[in-house]
C-alpha cells in the first residue's frame, strides 16, 4: 500500500447503503476461488516439504476479518499459501491486495479468479530524479530539501513521494512531498530520520545511530558535499481500492494485506504502511457495529526460496480497534489514530514472527536454539519457530549484557568451524562413533543411496531441463528484482515464485514432447514391436501424460531421501581419516561445552524475562525431570516397604512412558531408572530420518515421526499447537506417562491417609509407637513427591 493517505469517498452508514445499487468492483466467485486453490495446492505440496498451520482456531468463522500477514518473504507464493491455509483450516475465503504492476499475464488471470484487489504503489512508478539533493538546514528546517541541477516543478508533484537510495543492506527512506517551492526546493511532510538518510542528505560523519548530529554548533551539510541521488513518484489515488475494501468488509467478507508494502528477503519487519490502518478505521467509520477483527498472520519459512523447504503459518489473537481511535479518525485526528493502529498491528505481528536486525544475528539465534535443544530430540516446526522467537526477544533485550556478548562471539566461532568442515550442527555427534561403526555406517548408507538411485535417475534425467531452466531464470529474476528495489538484499523473495511459474510452463511442454516422441516411435515400428497393433496412437498420449509425471514424482520423493543420505556421508568420511577425525572430535567437545553455556545463560535470564518461564518452557530441563522421577521412585519404594502384603509393582518412568510389570509377577531387583539414564537413545546419533520413515507414511513419505505427529490443524496435534500459554515438554508428556503419574499420586494420598488414621487411633488409645516420627517423615516425602507431580496432573487435564 502507498504511504500517503488517499482521498476517500464520503462516509455513509451501512444501513443506508443499498447492495443492489452498489456494484462490486472486484467480485469473487466461490467456485472459481475453490477450483483455482485446489489446482494450485498441488504446486504447494510439491514445492514445500511441510506447511504447518498454527493457531487457525483463533480465526473468526463469521464476520469481517482483516488479515495482516508478514514478513512478506515469498512474493506471490505467500498469497497462495495464506489463501489455501485459511480455506482448509478456517473455511474462509479472503481477497488479497495485489500490486497493480503485477496484474498481467498469468498472475493477473489468477488474481481475478480469487477476487484480488489491485493496488497502485508509489514505488512501482518511481523514476530517478534529475540532479542531486541535500538538507541545507538540518537543525532549524529539517523538512526543506534543496537540489543541485534539479527541476522539481516539472518532475515532482504535491502528494507524490521522494525516495532515497538503499545502501549497505539498509532500506532507503521515503517521504511524502508537501509543497513545491521552486525548481530547486521542495518541502516534505515530515523530517527524515535515521543514520543512513541523514548521512545521504548531509554527507557528515558526526551522525549517531538515531540520525542525530553530533556537532550542534555546525549547521548544514559537509563542506563540498553535492548531495545524493533520489527517485520521485507521482501521487496515487487509492479511492477505488479503499471503496472495494470497505464494501467487502462491511458485507462480512475477509480482506488480506501484506502491510510492509512489498516482498523482501530481510530478517526483520519493514515499517508498516498506513493503508492497513486506514482500511480498518475507514470500515469502522462507515459501519461501527460490523464487528471487524484484525488477525495477524506470521509467515515463517525455513529457506523460503529453496525447493522442498518448510513453513509455519501462525495466526495470532484477533484484535479489535478501540472505539476512541475510530472517534479520533472521524474528528480529523487521523494521523494519531492511524499511528496507534499501526503500533497495535506491529506488536501483534511481532508475536507471530521471528525478527532479527540482520542475517548474522539470525544465524546465532538458530545455532543457540540447536545448542539449547538436547541433541537428537526432534521438535515440531511450530516449537522451533517459537524457540527462535523467544530467543530473538531475549537477544534484543540483553544484547548489551556481557554474557550475551561473549556467548554470541563463541557461537559465531562455532558456526565458522562448522562452515570450515562443511558439516551441519547435528552431524558433529558423528565424531563419537567408533571407527568400525563409522565404516559400516558409511558403506550401509552408500548401499541405500545406490538403491535409491535406481528410482531417481530416470526422472532426474527426464526432468533435468526443467530443473536447469528454473534455476537459471529464478536467479536472473532475482537480480532484476534486486536492481529495482530499495529494500531487498539478494532478491531471494522472488525465486520461489519464478521456480513454480517456470515449472508450471515447462513441465507440460516437456511431457508433451516426450509423449510425442513416444507416439512417433509407436507409429513408425510399434516401438520395435513392443506395442501391439490394436493399441491406438491416442492411447499413447494418454499413457504418456500419466507415465512421465509418475516417473518425475517418484524421482522427487526418492531424490529427497537420497539427498538426505548424501548430506550425511561427508561427516562419516571425515571420521575415517585421523586428521579430520581429530578436528571433528575437538568440535564435538567444544559443542558440549557451548551447549552447557547456552543452557546456563538461558535458564538464568529466561525467568527474568518470562515470569512463567518454567511453566511455559518448550524444552524440558532434564535435571529437574530426573529429580522428579527420582523422588517418585523413592516414595514408591518407601510405600512398598510399609506394605509387605501388597504385590510388588516394579515400574520405571522413561521419556514419558511407563512399563508396569504384571501384577503379582516376580521381578528381579533393579536400580531406579531416572530420566537422565533413559535418554541415551535420544542423544544417540540420529538415523537418516527420511529413509527410516519412508515405509511408514504413505509410499514415499519422508516426514520424521515427531514432525508428522505435529502436522495438523492447530486445533489439535499437541500442547504447543494452539498458541500461548504453552505447557512445557517434560519426561511425562504422553498419555501413559500422565496415567502413571495419576496412579502414583492417588497411591501416595491413600498411603498418607492410612498412616494418619493409624496415628489417630494410636493416640486415642494412648499407644503412640516409636515409629511415628519415621512415619511422619514418610508422609512428608509422599507429599513432596505428590507436589512434584502436580504440574503433570495440571498438564494432563489440559491435554
UniProtKB/TrEMBL annotation:
InterPro entries: GPAT/DAPAT (IPR052744), Plipid/glycerol_acylTrfase (IPR002123). Residues 1-22, 639-799 are annotated as: Disordered. The chain crosses the membrane at residues 449-469, 500-523, 535-558. Residues 767-783 have a biased composition (Acidic residues). One of its GO terms (biological process) is phospholipid biosynthetic process. Residues 66-302 form the Phospholipid/glycerol acyltransferase domain. Residues 10-22, 674-683, 703-714 have a biased composition (Low complexity). The keyword Transmembrane applies. Residues 733-754, 790-799 have a biased composition (Basic and acidic residues). Keywords: Membrane, Transmembrane, Transmembrane helix. Signal peptide: none annotated. Pfam families: Acyltransferase (PF01553). One of its GO terms (molecular function) is glycerone-phosphate O-acyltransferase activity. This is Phospholipid/glycerol acyltransferase domain-containing protein. It comes from Canariomyces notabilis. The lineage of its organism: Eukaryota, Fungi, Dikarya, Ascomycota, Pezizomycotina.
